[in-house]
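ESCALATION

Customer reports they have been waiting on this structure for their group meeting. Please prioritize. Original submission:
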Amino acid sequence: MNLVLVTGAAGFIGSHVAELLLSEGWQVRAVDALSETYDPAVKLRNIAGLRQNPSFTMVFDDLTTARLEPLVEGVDAVVHLAAEPGVSKSWGEAFPTYVERNILATQRLLEAAARVHAPRVVYASSSSVYGPTREPMHESSLLAPLSPYGVSKLAGECLVGAYAQERGVPTVSLRFFSVYGPRQRPDMAIHRFTEALLDGREVSVFGDQVQLRDFTYVGDVARAVVAAVTAPIPSGTILNIARGTPVPVPEVLRLLEVEVRGEASVARLPHRPGDTRQTHGDNRAAEAALGWRPTTDLPFGVKHQVAWHRSLRERPQDEGVDPDVVARLPSSLQGGGIR
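Update from on-call: job pushed to the front of the queue and completed.
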């Protein structure tokens, strides 16, 4: 049974990746700082079931300060999903946090991987590295991020490439496009829309133009990540992980109205700096390299996400969350770690 280190394992995508790895017979060593980006109790709920699996080990620690070589030692792959997310929040005084969590943490992890000769590092990048365009985004398209967040993810990609080229670390970078599905972060569009509809509140839509997004279901993304762990591809490979079909945001809202059986009252808010008009990922390289294809269409994925939101309302919010862990959160982020 082989071992994979998954960073950011208590998050939205990380918990799905860890779950899939376990289902395919891998051992998972998970690390997460349970940062304050959103409620740490939500993240603990994401992994409540995983922590019952004897092949899953959870370490609460911060990649910017932790001793990383012990975490990386003996693994067959590193899946680096930990990051500070969010385009609109990355401006101004918040940017040092993005530097620390998206650039410094990535460099420290790559350095540890180089020292212990980790067989592979899979890095989670973002469609936010691309410049604005109305054309499909290919891996060779213009890289011109519109936000500090996008800059930080592109800087991480550059570090991954440098360590692949000069330090011999086998790497793969995956550019994710508008990931959605169960456990989605509270700040993301479909999560916000769904909660507002279920509450009977106004739905906030940003910008004075219709935006198109290449919504990609989290289960499909997790399959791509797991495929990248073992795929026989050259070090330094970069791949788009996208459904490949941009959809207008109002169409997503209509799908949600059908699932929730309600009508949205829309509040139009100003354009947010960093939001691009359209994302459209060309996924042919990922299909060729990983044998991967997205299989979840948007109506089916939306149905599953809405069902997840409803399920949270039908059970206590803290169900599955260990109160002892919650009580010890502050100390867990000061170098020690709770296992």
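Sent to customer with the following note: The radius of gyration is 19 Å.
Escalation resolved.
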